[in-house]
Amino acid sequence: MLNIGSTRASSGKRGLFQNWLFQLIAIFAVGVALAFVGCGSDEDEADETEDEAFIEETIDVGGRQVVVLEGKLNADRTLSADYAYLLKGAVFVEGGATLTIEPGVEIFGEQASNGTLIVAQGSKIIADGTADAPIIMSSDAEIGSRARGQWGGLIINGSAPTNQGVTFGEGDTGAFGGNNPTDSSGVLRYVRLEYAGIEFSPDNELNGIAFQGVGSGTVAAYIQVHMNQDDGIEFFGGTVNLKYALVTGARDDSFDWTDGWTGKGQFWIAQQYGDDADNGFEVDNSSKNNEATPRSDATIYNVTLVGDPSGPESDNGMLIREGAAGTYANFIVTGFNKIGLDIDGESSIAQAEGGNLVVKNSIFFENGKGNFGDEKDDDGFDEAGYAADSGNREADPGLADPFSKTAPNFTPGAGANAVSAASPPSDGFFEPVNFIGAVSPSNNWLAGWTTGDQN
């Protein structure tokens, strides 16, 4: 890395910066652009030295220093806010290394090489931003030309249990899973990730952030995933907990989990864009074996799920299926074009009837084909009766401006008082609440660090 400092570019200069970046990378970047940069052969890797395996090149872009990152990072490194960074291909943090990212750092995924950041088992990412200086991971496209699926995203692999044992992520993103539920993969705090989710092949797209077998020792809070091509945030097993999370404009599901995720969540928001979207929550245990253990059994309080009735897409608010259990309380679910709550399939219905799947103290309002029901009408389960027995209501929560794409306001109005908030567990993770939904009138935690830009 060239030791040349510079002043961080202001947001007003960012479009010019990204335009220069797009043009100059073609001149200065090393190597040939590939469809996806993965691991080489074992023999080749054995012959590589550490320096050859990980490449850093610093270039000047309009007076600002840009560091090009490529290959496999096997030693601790810190990304300084004095520079911007470009991910060229799949950049792996591995071998027990820790990647520390300072507040305010901007990282761009290169479109031409499907830039992606992957944290391997045993390694860590310390991305600890602030509300005033969030860490931003985005596309290298010029502002005005950004779109879903322009780079890979962030994949974190841990050693916490999954119901598939040790397995491998999509797109050669590495092994995950194990027997350490308290495993730590580091810190993600005040991180915004935009325009990611590159498609490698049909049905093989990357999520904005994939927590793959990530343990509860990991800190994850104040995270936005914006305009992702596939799911916004997905959990593949593991025990990681997540607080203060926003997913906007995801093309597929906003929040998705499978393979035995047993973590906790509080204060989550999904806002869908109806041009292309699927479910607010898609909750699975295992498609291979609905009874696999550990069973997906999350505990989540205070969520606002907002569909988009103005568009042709945006399907179900909560789709729970394939043997998943869990506790879901203090939700507001509105604006989806199909069903607000659908508990689908014999295995998850059995969890609901046995008291292991609980949806309570929540409001479902103006979901197109019904607030409670079965989209396929094929299993005979009475979601409406189930919901009414658990303190759920059909009422207008009076959200201030939930459908605005540029300046949404998810604060509930007086109508939300139709439901009394359930008290979360007193376990050190959950915060006590006296309101439903993800935003209280006295704490707009979205202010200052989130975005609604769509290109």
Describe the structure.
- With 455 residues, the protein is mainly beta.
- It has one domain (11-418).
- It is built from 5 helices and 30 strands.
- The chain has helices at residues 14-28, 42-47, 50-53, 346-353, 383-388, and strands at 54-61, 64-73, 77-79, 84-87, 90-93, 98-101, 106-109, 116-119, 124-128, 135-139, 153-157, 167-168, 175-176, 186-194, 199-201, 204-205, 209-212, 219-226, 233-236, 242-248, 255-258, 264-271, 281-283, 297-306, 318-320, 325-334, 339-343, 357-360, 363-365, 370-372.
- The longest helix has 15 residues, at 14-28.
- The protein starts with 13 loop residues before the first helix and ends in a 67-residue tail after the last helix.
Low-confidence stretches: 1-52
Strand content: 25-35%
- Determine the number of helices (DSSP H or I, runs of at least 4 residues): 5
Beta strand count:
30
How many discrete structural domains?
1
Tell me roughly what share of residues is in helical segments. Answer: under 10%
